[in-house]
Write a structure and sequence with these properties.
Number of helices: 11
Helix content: 40-55%
Distance between the termini: 42 Å
Order of helices and strands: EHEHEHEEEHHEEHHHHHH
Largest sheet: 8 strands, mixed
Number of strands: 8
């Protein structure tokens, strides 16, 4: 294992359990969600309580996952060892550009839900491998490791987060807040996300750019983003840093 991404955690803590479960998942699965953000922005970051992944052809993997899960409610959800929740999203067979072409061929405007599917598909195909190691924050011993795991890239995570925020129901403002917080950390703490997104299908790139600028550059949007994200005080999100990063990447 060379140049691993080193995370810290407690024995039997969520981070260690997540990486341990991840090590046993099919190699084709792409890690997304809170653990992927943690890997890309580095520590510290907000705590994550479950494990999220993308897969192409989930039906193929479902029997094996069910055989090791404590329970499988359906819809890509599994309760794994240590009572860790695993949520796997099936992105389908088409790549992102083919999916966009199919949607545009209908003559209808691409909906927010469809754009979110495009974002997840593109993120699946843009994932890159990482070696993960969790060290005990108490004595530095290795608690868990997962080698050569495909993890959503910074650009892929930005695309998914930016297309998910608008789908969050008003009844779950904490989900919108956590997505905006993660998005802000990714924009200000990672490199290369803008260059990655240049290769995304045009409708996805245009939507992500417009929404990111609205939430982090537009005064009214920034005010709401501040109110949404201020609840996360472990690492305060510096909105000036985010605005600088967005302005540098997308000046117009």
């Amino acid at each position: 294992m060379s140049n691993p991404m080193v995370l810290t955690g407690r024995p039997d803590g969520t981070t260690a359990r997540s990486v341990e479960v991840l090590s046993g998942l099919p190699a084709e699965f792409r890690l997304i969600g809170g653990l992927a953000v943690l890997c890309r922005v580095g520590v510290p970051h907000r705590a994550t309580v479950d494990l999220d992944a993308l897969a192409r052809g989930l039906d193929h993997y479902d029997p094996a996952l069910r055989s090791v899960a404590l329970s499988a409610p359906g819809g890509g959800q599994y309760l794994m060892a240590g009572r860790l929740e695993l949520d796997v999203i099936d992105v389908g067979e088409s790549d992102a550009q083919s999916l966009v072409d199919q949607l545009l061929a209908t003559g209808e405007e691409i909906t927010d839900l469809e754009l979110n599917a495009v974002g997840h598909t593109w993120a699946h195909d843009a994932a890159t491998p990482l070696d993960l190691v969790v060290l005990s924050e108490l004595d530095g011993t290795v608690l868990a490791s997962a080698s050569d795991r495909l993890v959503a890239s910074p650009g892929g995570l930005v695309a998914m987060k930016a297309t998910t925020v608008t789908l969050r129901a008003s009844s779950k403002p904490e989900k919108r807040a956590s997505d905006l917080y993660d998005l802000g950390r990714l924009l200000s703490s990672t490199d290369g996300w803008a260059a990655e997104l240049d290769s995304a299908p045009a409708p996805l790139l245009d939507a992500v750019r417009a929404r990111v600028r609205q939430w982090f550059l537009d005064p009214a949007g920034v005010d709401r983003t501040f109110r949404d994200t201020r609840r996360f005080d472990e690492v305060r999100l510096d909105l000036d840093d985010v605005a600088d990063a967005v302005s540098e990447a997308w000046p117009n």
